[in-house]
Amino acid sequence: MKNIIILFLIVGSLSSCTSQVEGVTLITAQEAKVNLEKDSNIQLIDVRTAEEFSTGHIAKAGNYCLTNDELKQKMTNLDKDKPVYVYCKSGGRSSKASRLLVENGFKHVYDISGGITAWEGDGLEISD
Fold first, then answer.
1. What is the pLDDT of residues 26-54, one digit of tens each?
2. What are the start-end ranges of the H helices in the chain?
3. Which of 28, 48, 57, 124 is 20 to 30 A from residue 34's alpha carbon, by CA?
4. How far apart are CA 66 and CA 94, in angstroms?
């Protein structure tokens, strides 16, 4: 019985560390690719630095760097009613950016799990 309680505590603490932000849908790179091919209304943003973006990015992505507040300045260019797909290198910055978008009234925010690292890991193409 004691071991079962400990197991539940461990599982509960692990799941709370990976819980997603309310209003943000976490999707895989493969799901994102399929959706991007089907829906031209998706707004795709890369929240890495300009230097990182220049080394390769997902086709049709806009660069809205999170670390220098560029996202806050440029988010007015995005339509709050259309889906926004967000990614970074591995998921940390895109999680913060997704939360910021939801806090600013964006209704359909999707965070690409694992970022461009997962995208490339799945063998998906990137643009220069």
1. 999 999 999 999 999 999 999 999 999 99
2. 2-17, 29-38, 50-54, 70-74, 92-103, 115-121
3. 48
4. 8
